[in-house]
Specification:
The complex is a heterodimer.
Chain A (H helix, E strand, L loop, with lengths): L1 H7 L6 H8 L10 H27 L12 H25 L3 H31 L8 H33 L4 H30 L2
Chain B lengths: L1 H18 L25 H6 L4 H31 L8 H37 L7 H20 L29 H30 L12 H32 L10 E2 L2 E2 L7 H34 L7 H14 L15 H13 L1 H15 L8 H24 L1 H7 L3 H31 L5 H28 L17 H31 L69
Antiparallel strand pairs in B: 1-2
Helix pairs in contact in B: 3-4, 3-5, 3-16, 4-6, 4-7, 4-8, 4-14, 5-6, 6-7, 7-8, 7-9, 8-11, 8-12, 8-14, 9-11, 11-12, 12-14, 12-15, 14-15, 15-16
The chains are: A mainly alpha, B mainly alpha.
């Protein structure tokens, strides 16, 4: 913030400032464009989820709100997601060391766990629907289906990049620096989605 | 007195630096530390002309598609005007009238202006003005355009679904938007919301590109404060859009579920057609908050790029450095920040606690301060400028006046006590059309006349341009000035016919407005003729036809080729407003001219 105010108080037309400006390399932040891209996506997603949370908080105050039960499977799913995030972290460390076997195992593991999480969420849906908790019966149910869907879609989006990285790794046509960057950014995104899930799950658990 | 004194000292200081031989030469530039961007080179016809990854080309694609849908929007509005002036002709029935109102609003605000300013001008200008070879993620950029096309197709296809397009008004307020009796309450709504969801997704992809290109991919020497204001406007508007569109997305998704699955996010307990609906407890006001949290920044998403482009056009065509560049940047940033805390001034009549209205009235009036600063600075830039009354300049001057009167009527409406009686009248229609319809469109025209040579290498015809300008400018006042008057009389908006009411006395005015609207609408054919004809056989433009400083005119070839800059990326030595610098023969110094090439130049005091 301080830097920002310093920046916008520059006087670009003065010759003393011009001397400084001429040396500028044209980059504002010391980040790769991919990393900045992932961060921007995370900011936008955070805004989206925040609006859902605000809507949830506003809507739950109205008298017709009936909380729904949290099946125990949700806890297992949460643990699976946590493990996948942890494995991704390990894979990132392995990729820094350029350990091919460990990277391969790690990526497979992450994919397996993430698909297991998504499958688990679908089973929770199935169970709840069988018990008669339809989206139209109460808005609390609707919020549950909505939030899990949006979170799941985010994970699927991440899985596209995971899939690209894995297929490149298996085919062997990649630069190790690019692979390290992709794995690092995917790992950050996975941690982010874990964090989002914990907040959403906590919200639904305590209300 | 003191100014002159400073000036001499500075001139001396400048002499001293050139004389000092031991110091590095003044145009010394450190070697490039960044590797060159790998560009995608298309191999087939499809990847060159359809799925192009070149930002310039995508910009033109965006402009064409947005303009095409705008023509649809324009035709809808002309049909509505015909209905209002000549109800006896029965051009439209009430349902169709509402459907046209809705589609006209949504098309013009979201699918035309937003897409045109950010997708069109953003893609064309950002890489060129920043001195980059392309956007940072060209593939994502291409996807962004095609998702936009998909959104447009969904929107247009809603004309052909059972029940027709939605007639809920462009604000899509529940519960009425999805209740039986509103035209297009199911399929029309589904198509509209799906289209919006895709628009937001596509825009986010594009926005990612605009933001990161501006931040990370500029030429050497191009600091943020050396960027032309067009880029500042588009950049800040994109940030605004990235933060505001999620509100529309969230509201839209929940409304979609209410419509399709019968959930009650927004649907209250209600009786429709004598039967109690299954929904209960939903909060329509929540939707209004979500919608306007997007909707108000949306005004500035359109306005900020327009502000930026106007600043550049004024400076170039008045041959004068922009008055108060820093203040202009601050104003853009301040307007963007404030635009997030004024949204509820669209909801004064929704019923709110007076203190809430008081807060939003205050913030609304505060936002007039940075906006007024901008208007003053434009006018002061003209002061003692060497004004060239080219077509872009005419449109720019028309913008300032139009924005001023649209903006000042906004100050009326920003006050709760005035808004409540006026909010349902034509006063509001005139206000928002002037401030965010006509004013930005005048900028679009100015920008098209200005940058047309950059795209095609040919100039647009001046004579036709002037005819187009005067008809459009005078015509729009013929349309909207009477509407202000109608508003004061209390003529309600949203009515498709006035019947035998006390407002029937304004029927004559309605006829006048409609005739003017038809003339303005038809006169746009001159513009399209000019575009098509000039693109084919217009006068060849010389390089840098307007003698501008910013980088987009300094490419080795004009129009720029794929990769923009030939072998060498440009190096920037100055800000883009060095016009009329004393001590050199030309009245402008492009941004990539090194100090040694203009050694006689003296620092200009501002």
């Amino acid at each position: 913030m301080k830097n920002f105010f310093k920046l916008i108080s520059q006087k670009p037309w003065e010759s003393s400032q011009a001397q400084i400006d001429n040396k500028h390399d044209g980059k504002t932040l010391g980040l790769s464009r991919e990393k900045l891209g992932v961060r921007t996506v995370m900011v936008v997603s955070t805004v989206i989820f925040s609006f859902f949370v605000v809507a949830y908080a506003d809507r739950m105050l109205i008298h017709d709100w009936k909380s729904m039960p949290e099946p125990w499977l949700l806890w297992i799913n949460t643990i699976i997601l946590m493990i996948s995030s942890y494995v991704f972290h390990k894979t990132k460390i392995a990729s820094d060391l350029n350990d091919y076997e460990k990277i391969k195992k790690g990526l497979f593991m992450v994919g397996f766990l993430t698909f297991a999480f998504l499958l688990g969420q679908s089973i929770v849906w199935y169970q709840l629907l069988k018990l008669g908790y339809f989206a139209s019966t109460n808005v609390a149910n609707a919020f549950f289906y909505l939030l899990t869907t949006i979170h799941g879609l985010h994970l699927l989006g991440g899985l596209i990049f995971w899939g690209l990285a894995t297929s490149k790794l298996l085919k062997g046509n990649y630069k190790i620096s690019n692979m390290q960057r992709t794995i690092e950014l995917c790992a950050i995104y996975w941690h982010f989605l874990l964090f989002v899930w914990l907040i959403l799950f906590g919200l639904m658990l305590f209300t | 007195m003191s100014d002159e004194f400073d000036y001499k000292i500075e001139a001396k200081a400048a002499d001293a630096t050139t004389a000092d031989a031991s110091a590095p030469p003044i145009d010394y530039v450190p070697p490039a530390e960044r590797p060159e961007q790998e560009l995608y080179h298309s191999k087939s016809w499809w990847t060159t002309y359809v799925f192009s990854q070149d930002a310039k080309y995508i910009g033109v694609q965006y402009t064409c598609v947005a303009t095409a849908i705008a023509v649809v929007g324009l035709i809808l509005s002309l049909m509505m005007r015909t209905q209002l002036a000549f109800p006896g002709l029965n051009v439209l029935d009430p349902s169709t009238y509402y459907q046209f109102v809705t589609m006209h609003g949504m098309i013009m605000v979201v699918f035309f202006l937003t897409a045109l300013f950010l997708g069109g001008f953003g893609n064309l200008l950002i890489p060129l003005m920043c001195g980059a070879r392309d956007m940072v993620f060209p593939y994502v950029n291409m996807l962004s355009f095609w998702i936009f096309v998909l959104a447009i197709l969904l929107l247009v296809s809603s004309f052909f679904v059972p029940g027709g397009p939605t007639g809920a008004g462009w604000t899509l307020y529940p519960p009425q938007a999805i209740t039986v009796g509103t035209p297009g309450n199911l399929w029309g709504m589904v198509m509209m919301l799906a289209s919006l969801v895709f628009f937001v997704i596509g825009f986010t992809m594009g926005g990612l590109n605009y933001v990161i290109t501006v931040l990370q991919a500029r030429a050497r020497g191009m600091t943020l404060m050396r960027l032309p204001l067009s880029v500042w406007g588009i950049f800040v508007a994109t940030v605004l859009a990235l933060l505001a569109f999620p509100a529309l997305l969230v509201g839209g998704i929940m409304l979609l579920l209410d419509a399709v699955l019968g959930t009650s996010f927004f649907m209250p307990e209600m009786i429709s057609m004598g039967e109690k609906l299954s929904t209960e407890g939903g909060s329509p006001i929540l939707f209004q908050h979500l919608f306007w949290f997007f909707g108000h920044p949306e005004v500035y998403i359109v306005a900020l790029p327009a502000f930026g482009i106007v600043s550049d056009l004024i400076s170039v065509h008045a041959r004068r450095n922009l008055f108060g560049y820093r203040m202009m940047v601050w104003a853009i940033v301040a307007i963007a920040a404030l635009s997030f805390i004024v949204w509820a001034h669209h909801m004064y009549v929704a019923g709110m606690r007076p203190w809430f209205g008081y807060f939003f009235a205050t913030t609304t009036l505060i936002i007039a301060v940075p906006t007024a600063i901008k208007v003053y600075n434009w006018v002061l830039t003209l002061w003692r400028g060497n004004i060239r009354l080219t077509v872009p300049m005419l449109f720019t001057l028309a913008f300032i006046i139009t924005f001023l009167n649209g903006g000042i009527t906004g100050l009326f409406l920003g006050n709760v006590a005035i808004d409540v009686p006026l909010s349902d009248t034509y006063f509001v229609v005139a206000h928002f059309h002037m401030v965010m319809g006509i004013a930005p469109v005048l900028v679009v025209f100015g920008a098209v006349y200005h940058w047309f040579p950059l795209v095609t290498g040919r100039m647009l015809d001046e004579g036709l341009g002037k005819i187009h300008f005067w008809i459009t400018f005078v015509g729009t006042y013929m349309i909207y000035t009477p509407m202000y008057y109608q508003g004061f009389l209390g003529v309600p908006r949203r009515y498709f016919e006035m019947y035998e009411s006390s407002y029937a006395s304004t029927v004559g005015l309605n006829v006048f407005i409609t005739v003017a609207a038809l003339i303005v609408g038809l006169s746009q054919l001159i513009f399209f003729y000019n575009i098509i004809n000039s693109a084919r056989a217009g006068k060849k433009a010389k390089k840098n036809p307007w003698d501008a400083n910013s980088l987009e005119w300094q490419t080795p070839e004009m129009p720029p080729k794929h990769g923009n800059w030939g072998n060498e990326l440009p190096v920037v030595y100055r800000w883009p407003y060095d016009f009329g610098v004393p001590g050199i023969d030309k009245d402008y110094i492009p941004q990539n001219v090194s100090p040694s090439q203009v050694s006689g130049a003296k620092a200009d005091k501002t």
